Amino acid sequence: MLAFYAAKNTDHGLELSQQIARFEGWGHSSVIHCDDPEVVAKFATVPTGRVLVNTPAIMGGMGYSTDLEPSFMLGTGTWSGSITSDNVTALHLINIKRVAYQSRPWRDIYKEYGA
Fold first, then answer.
1. Coil, helix or strand at residue 78
2. Between 55 and which of 9, 18, 64, 65 could a Cys-Cys bridge form, CB atoms 3.0 to 4.6 Å apart?
3. Is the pTM of this model over 0.85?
4. Rounded-to-integer distance, Cα 79 and Cα 74, Å
């Protein structure tokens, strides 16, 4: 089954998107088919971890038609209580210990940025 919503205008489409996300649960992805960057920027306010533009949700969400990490496990983001909004990969399922050495002096931060 496919749900299809027809919006009267951009603002109505954004309102519908917010209502759908609220009802379905904030989360992983939202999709818009649009050529106007300003409209896409408005749509990006929908609380989802990614906004897919001009690509099918299934192909974009799993990373096939976008530059997202490929995955079939989807992080829904903190809006829904998840710890990540990334596509979950093997790197999310292991612990990585990092040993980090100082890479720039921190004592001069006030001289550099003023305070």
1. helix
2. 65
3. no
4. 13
